[in-house]
Amino acid sequence: MKNEVPWVTVWGYGADIRATRGTLTIREGTSRRSYPLSSIRHLLIAGGHTLETAAIAHLLANSISVSFFDVHGEPVGAIRPPGYSACPLRTAQKNVPVHRFAMSGIVSSLKSRMRYLNELGSGRADGLYYKGELEILADASRELEFLITLPELARVFSLTRNMYYEILSRVAAPELGYRRREKPPYPDPVNAMFSHGYAVLYASTAVSVAGAGLDPEIGSLYGNVIPPGKNRSACVMDIMEPLMTPMVDRVVMDMAQEGLITKQYEISSRCILSEKLMTEFNRRLTNSVDSDTIDRAVADYADAVRSGGSA
Q1: Residue range(s) defining the domain that contains residue 29
Q2: Structural element, H or E, at residue 229
Q3: What is the pLDDT of residues 99-130, one digit of tens each?
Q4: 3-class SS string, 132-167
């Protein structure tokens, strides 16, 4: 569809969200945004806003999904157009080999993260890894095929994920205050941007998961090995895990290295990103969070569920 908007986000507090039969209108303070409903696929609402009931009806009538998040980017619910509620693959999902599916997700995400770290490190004269870190990650990758219990998988996954986020901090300016992945409320702009980007990726993946007939609540890596987190659906997290680095992390760290985050945020009880920063971030996410790639990942997962094979 020409001029299609993959998603529209409303973040923060105080926006007034309305829709007629043909147009979505968002008023935020003195600013106003309008979108033809024919061009929108998804509305993401995070924080505290006013949403008219009639707007929901018009959105659903135009096959537009609505996802709700708290101000930190944690999911709180969603409304899908008719036809998204059935989960014909639920029984098959319950019977998949959990260890094999979880292993596949961990291997894919670890390879994605290590490729990105190696790419970042190749352009630095002083390197990126501290002594022994690369060996730890490489050993963990080789060790995976020999792990036979879910707690062992959880240990390696948590270790490598935590190391990855700490290593990333070395390419961000120190004044940004980013050290590692934190829980909300986020104390720095990099964590806040990760949260926003993951919310966009989560919502986009959730729509595709529902459309494929998968039960979003039934996962293997998440739900069995790792808790999915508050209000997060395990199947959605399983599929989006390997996509987080190329679709979100790369965008955030590119902006950090380009100096675009500096002085574009405020720290109070949480980190608040400026409108200018959010506009540029969303523009880049539109190019990075690719719906076709997500749909292919979901289709591959659904095919593996049907066959009972590796995800």
Answers
A1: 8-69
A2: none
A3: 999 999 999 999 999 999 999 998 777 789 99
A4: CHHHHHHHHHHHHHHCCCHHHHHHHHHHHHHHHHHH
